[in-house]
Amino acid sequence: MLRHLRIGIAIIAVGLITSGCVSSGKFKKMEADKNTQIEALEKQKAALEQDKNKTEGNLNTLKERYSALEQKNAATEQQVGSLQQEKASLVAASQQQQQQYEALVQGLSSEVEKGQLQVRQFKNMLTVDLAEKIFFDSGKATLKPGGKDVLKKVGEALKGYENKIIRVVGHTDNVPMAKSLQGTFPTNWDLSVARATTVVRFLQEVGVPPERMVPSGRAEYDPVAPNDSPEGRQKNRRIEIMLIDKNLISEMSRPAD
């Protein structure tokens, strides 16, 4: 376009000079003015080209940003969906846990009312606390007849919890074993383990699958009350039956990365 303009100016100038209408000095001034205009137009064109290139660059950057934001948004939506699924699973698990707790309490309500046992709920665990005096004589690991009746009912209630591992834990007070009993149970460790094992064997006899049960003893090292009074020591002499989710056991036994 600028080249055509120059050619046009030149033709007009030649015509004017030939016809004698314009002097040589005036022509030169006109030519200089036009050249100035052309230079200004060329600069304007160059500036417009720069603005165009800059705008195209900004547009490409915005497109890249938009694409990145779209990907991030898609990833966020996926995370939200996963979290919502996890939340729904946790709510369902919590409701199931509460239903299991209520069912266990209802199944053992008469024993709970008599104070023969206590049912507790904690996160992924249900615990049945059995009073030692109902089940065992002092320093002994043989089940008493009355204890068998209660434990049989506990076993019936536990059969339905196929998704639980049943951990039976024996506890004692801190009074050392009498010398007359040390031949059979040298320490409270031995007595607590023997009592837990006795309970596990009886639960197996009433139909609880043995592969779901784990006996263990804590002796006097996990008290629920001070051992400085008869009442406190009596509370500490107990059998705990803990119902633990199989998934939780699997996580605990999984080797660390």
Structure, explained:
The protein is of the alpha+beta class and 257 residues long. Helix content is 61%, strand content 14%. The chain has 8 helices and 5 strands; from the N terminus they run αααββααβαβαβα. A 5-stranded mixed beta sheet has the order 1-2-5-3-4. Strand 1 (117-122) and strand 2 form a beta hairpin. Helix 1 runs antiparallel to helix 2 (24-107) and helix 5 crosses helix 6. It is rod-shaped and about 145 Å long.
The share of residues in extended strands comes to 5-15%
Per the principal axes of the C-alpha atoms, what is the gross shape? rod-shaped
Total E-strand runs: 5
Could you report the average pLDDT, rounded to the nearest whole number?
A: 82
Number of helices: 8
The SSE order reads HHHEEHHEHEHEH
Which strand order does the major sheet show? Answer: 1-2-5-3-4
Oligomeric form: single chain
Structural class: alpha+beta
Helicity level, as a percent range?
A: 55-70%
> Nearest-angstrom radius of gyration?
46 Å
